[in-house]
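Possible regression after last week's pipeline update?

I re-ran a chain I had predicted before the update to compare outputs. Posting the input and the new output here so someone can diff against the archived version. Not blocking, just want to make sure nothing changed silently.
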Amino acid sequence: MDWSFQLYSARNFQPWDKVLKLLGSLGYAQVEGFGGVYDDPKAFRAELDKNKLAMPTGHFSIEALETDFDSVRRTADAFGIGLLICPYLVAEARPTDAAGWRGFGERLAKVGETAKKAGYGFAWHNHDFEFKTLPDGSIPQEHILSAAPDIGWEMDVAWVVRGGADPLPWIERHGRRIVAVHVKDIAKAGQGLDEDGWSDVGHGTIDWPKLAKVLRERSDAKYFIMEQDNPNDIERFARRSIEAARTF
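New output (post-update):
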């Protein structure tokens, strides 16, 4: 399997050329982009090529996707990104009821149509807030997926868990929608206190050997992307995570 790496994990460990050299040396074949690496696509792409790294997926804000798709397209083409992913909705913009979340899903559906016409795949990336029960007992993620039936889902498993949900039933129900996975782990009690409670993959509380098997069998995930939102040692995180992942 070609393991990928979400570059957001390394945003505090510059310069990027050293980060990419590290990832290439550890055996990563792919990276996932985010806004912090899009400023000079030509130069960054050259560093990727130098380290035999591809960027098949990339995160783009809902604002850029809705209001400046031409710029998104230029960036994607410069990096070779084929799967566009909307990664987040700021707290103040989040709906508070089912109708609001269906409306947001409809917005994503329209972006998905634009992306498809332009030749790209499109997916939504979850955090924890999509799994917090609404006043009527429903779950935002269900409204998003039902209102946008043709878009994919980049499943961030650890955020699903932090949202209070069990990933397995979601994989069973929506596996064919899952086109990419964020491979992330949650620290054991008393650990990771200076890393926002996250862990190196395979060294935390999530049963990744089981989940990886289920995802391979029950989902359409093509990309498995390592991420840690706030690591204190990028070399350690990247190395230990890919070493563990190779045993899954």
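Follow-up from reviewer: compared with the archived run. The chain has a mean pLDDT of 98. Marking as no regression found.
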